[in-house]
Description:
Layout: H1 3-16, E1 20-24, E2 34-39, H2 46-54, E3 58-62, H3 70-78, E4 82-83, H4 87-103, E5 107-110, H5 116-119, H6 133-140, E6 146-165, E7 184-197, E8 201-203, H7 205-209, H8 215-237
Parallel strand pairs: 1-7, 2-5, 2-6, 3-4, 3-5
Antiparallel strand pairs: 6-7, 6-8
Helix pairs in contact: 1-2, 6-8
Amino acid sequence: MSATSALQMSQWCLRLFQVQTSIIHRDRLPADTSAIAVSNHRSFLDAPLMMVAMNRPIRFACHHYMGQVPLMRDLVTAWGCFPLESVQMRQQQFFQQASQFLQSRQVVGIFPEGAAPMVQYRSQRQVGSFQRGFAHLALRSPTPELAVVPIAIISEDEIVQSPIPVKLLSWFDPSEPLFQQDAWHPVVLYRQVTVAIGRPFWITAPRREAYQGKQAKEMVKEVSQYCYQEVTDLLRAGF
Length: 239
């Protein structure tokens, strides 16, 4: 994945869907260093929005089924995404690949709410609980200088469509419980959106050293709660 092609694809995607975008607090972005970008997630447009906001290519971990659908697989690969494996190997593969990207000074993008917001419609200011895998990744990674960057995607105007039966996705990943429900997959199309950059959480050597034994759980909690609070505060601010 080249920086130019990934960014151009993201810019083209936002133009195609006529998304008016404002980016605030861009001065908070760390320059030319490894980073984990975490954000709330309601639309397939979130990934290109984050990439344009950071002005860098981002390696996104995406759901297993995205690597099983032929055209979708080609698209996410071109964008630099890495679909996770089936349930048995998912966690191991995620940490291995993401850590490699971070050690080469790239950005890894994660939506810590998981897949739920994509199949269960939520309002613009609502955020689900954060899964803590990104915090474990940040603290485990041997990358010397690493920033965890919270990002809030704030929809100001949008259209919501529901053209896809959720159960259709179970053909590609029958192990996902979310795909077993009798519902329609909501598709959120932003018309006007603000991307607000939160204050980075820096993973320092003392924090990484504290990630062991009984302290590990507290360190993970600190990172995940910090990012969750940053995102929710930015969403409430509204801008």
